[in-house]
Amino acid sequence: MDSGKQLAHAHEVGTKTSLVLQKRLKNAQEAFGNRVRHATGNGATAPSSWMAGADPMSCYAYAIDSMQRAILFWDTLRQRGNHFVENTTQGLKPVLHFDYETVLDGRQFARPVNYALLRITPAAGVTIDDSRRPYVIIDPRAGHGPGIGGFKDDSQVGVAMRAGHPVYFVIFFRDPEPGQTLLDVCEAEQVFIKKVRALHPDSPKPAIIGNCQGGWAAMMLAASDPDDTGPIVINGAPMSYWSGAWSEGEGDNPMRYSGGLLGGTWLASLTADLGNGKFDGAWLVQNFEKLNPANSLWDKYYNLYRKADTEPPRFLEFERWWGGYYLMNREEIEWITRNLFVGNKLWSGDVKSATGKAFDLRDIKSPIVLFASMGDNITPPQQAFNWVVDLYGSTEEIKARGQVIVGMMHQNIGHLGIFVSGKVAKKEHAQIVSVLKSIELLPPGLYGMVIHERESGNGIDYDVEFQEHTLEEIAGRLNRFQRVDEKPFEAVAALSDFNQRAYELFAQPLVQAMSSEMSARLLREFHPLRVQNWAFSDMNPWLAWLGPTAEAVRANRQALGADAPLREHEQVGAEMLSATLDAYRAVRDAMTEATFFGLYANMFSFYSRGETPAHADTRAVTTPGELPEVKDALASVKRGGYTEALARVACLLKRKGEPLPLSRLELRKELVDDLVEFLPEMPMDEWRRIRGQQEIIARYAPEQAIEALPALLRDPADRQRLHALASKLRADERLLGYEPTAEQAAMLKRIQAVLAGGAERQHRAAVPLARAS
Predict the structure, then answer these.
(1) Which of 43, 227, 550, 577 has the most crowded Cβ, counting Cβ within 10 A?
(2) What does the pLDDT read at residue 734?
(3) Is there a domain that residue 91 lies in?
(4) Are 593 and 663 members of one domain?
C-alpha cells in the first residue's frame, strides 16, 4: 500500500472510529440520565416523598438500623478474611458442594501435573446407574480454583447426578508442578478419560463438559484423543479470541482489546518472572473485576449492606471461590497468551501436542454443543462460535466429515451465570443432559437448540427442538461487519512477537536475576486482592472488637423495613453511585475501543502488505457444486452397499425446512433400539460420516441419487432387508400418527419404482446366465 493510500486509509479509520466513539458516548450519557431519572422520581422504586421520614423518631430508627447493618457488613468481611486465611493455609480446596473421592492424582504421574480426577459421591436419595454415560467436568483455570461447576445443588454436577449419571470432576491444585506445561496437562487429562472408560466399560463414551478455559482444554483433549471422548459441551469458552461485536450500538467486549493496548504477551512473561517463574492468578481475577467496576467496587458490597441479615451466607459462599487465587508456571501462561489470547491459533492447527502433532479440531468425532450468552462480555458469542466458521469452509464440509455441532444461546446471562446460575442449571444444563443421547442421532450439520417453556400441573416443563442452519447463515448473523474488525489483531500479534523478543533479550535476564522465592511470595501476599482479604480478618488486632459486637447486634437487632422512607433515600443514592460507575465504564470502554482501532487499524495497513487475512475463506467465492466435498461425494454416487443405500433413502425422505422436535428424536432413538437387526453395525461417528456424504449426494444430484440406488443394492439380500425395514416402519404403531408430507409420499413412490425396476433388470440379466450354465 503506497503512502497516499495509507493516508486515505488512516483518514477513513479516524472518521469511522470517531463516529462510533460519539455514538458510544451518547449512549453512555443517555443510559446514565435514564437511570438517574428513574431513581429520583420517574420509576416505581423512587421514594414517595423527599421529605417523608424527616421526623426525629424516623431518623433515630434509621440511624440504629444503618449502624447495625454496618457492623454486620464489616463482620461479614471479617468472616470472609478468616475464610481466606484458613483456605490459604490449607493450600486451597475445591469449592465443590458435593462429597468426592480421588480417583487419580496427576502429581504422581511420570510427568507430574497439579491436576486430579475426582468421582463425585451421590447425596442421600440420589441413585446412580453406572451403566449410564459418565460425565467429566473440567473447570476453568483462569485465576480461580476449581469447583464452580459443582458450586451448589442446582449446578452441572447436580443436574447430571439427579439424572442418574456418574459424575467425575477434573480439579487442579494451587501450586503447579515444576516444569509442567499445558501439553502435559492435556496428556494427563487423556489418562483421566481412559480411566473413566475403564471404570464404565458398558457405558457410552463419557461426555466432556468444559467451562470457559476448560472449554478449549476439553476441545484439545477431544482432538488429541477422539476415540475415547463422547459428546463435548463447552460453555462460555473463548475459542476465537479476536472475535467480538463491533457495532454502532453499545460498547461490547472490551477484554479483547487488552492484549493490544498492553503491547502483547510480554507483560505476562514479566509478571511470571517477578513471581520467580510462577504467574499469580490474582492478576487475572483483577482484570475480570475491572470489567465491571460498578459491581466490583460498589454493587455487591451495597447489596450485602442492604440485606445484612440475609445476604452474608450467599456472599461468603461465592467469595470462597472468587477469593481463591491459583498459580501457573511461566510456561503455561506464556503458552496461553501466545497461542490463544494474542495468537488465536487453536482453530488454525498451529498449536501442536507434545508429540508434535497439530491439534486439528476437525478430528473430533463426537457431537459438539456450544453454549454462549449475548450478555457475556468476557466470552461473547462471536468468540464461542466463530471458530466453526474459521475451521470449516462450508456447511458441506461439516456434513462430509460427519460432524454434528449444536449451538445454544442465552439472551442476557453474564459470563459467570453460565456456570453458576441455578436457573441456568435447571433449564439449559438440565436439558443438555436430557437430550445428549438424542443429539448423537442428529444427522451431520449445524443446529440451533431452542428450549421452550410451558406451564404444567407440576410447574414449568420444557420442550426442546433443533433447527438446522447453514454455516454461511450463522456467520452472517454473528458478524455484521464480515469480521473486518479482526484485521487489526493481526498487527497486534506481529507487534506482540516483537515486544516479546525484545523483553527476552534485554529485560528478562535482569528481572530473573533480581527475583527470588521470597520476593515472589511478598509480591503475592501484598497483591491488592489478597490484602483486602487478610487485612479484614482476625489477623488484624484492631478488629478484635468486631466479632463480639456483631453478636450483640444480632441479639438486639432493630431492623427497619426496606420500604421505610429513609431506606428508600439510601437506595436512591446507591443507585446513582452505581449509575455513575457504569457511566465511567461505558466511557472507558468506548475510549479503549477507539484507541485500539485508531492505533492498530492503521498499523495493519503497514503490516499487511495486502496479505489475505488468516481467517479468510479462500473458497467463499466458489459455487457450492465446485467444493471438494461435493465433488468427492458425487464421484461416489454409485459406490457403496446397504449402509449407503439406507442413509441415502433417509436423506431423500427427510422433512425439509422444519424444526426437529425432541419428541421426534426420542422416537427415532426408540426405533433404533427396536430395529437394530436392520441397521448396520458400525460406530456412530462412521454412520454420521456416511449419512453426511449421502445427504450431499441427495441435495446436489437427487436424480442420480435415486437412479443409482439399485447399484447400491445389487445383493438381493440387501434389497430384501431394506424392504423388510420399510414394512416394519409402515406397521409400527408409533409412526401411525406421523403422516408423510406430499413431497415425502411422492419421493417414496419414486424410490419404490426405481428399486422395483432395478430388481426386474437384474432378474432379466440373470436368466440368460442361468440358461447358459
Answers:
(1) 550
(2) 67
(3) no
(4) no
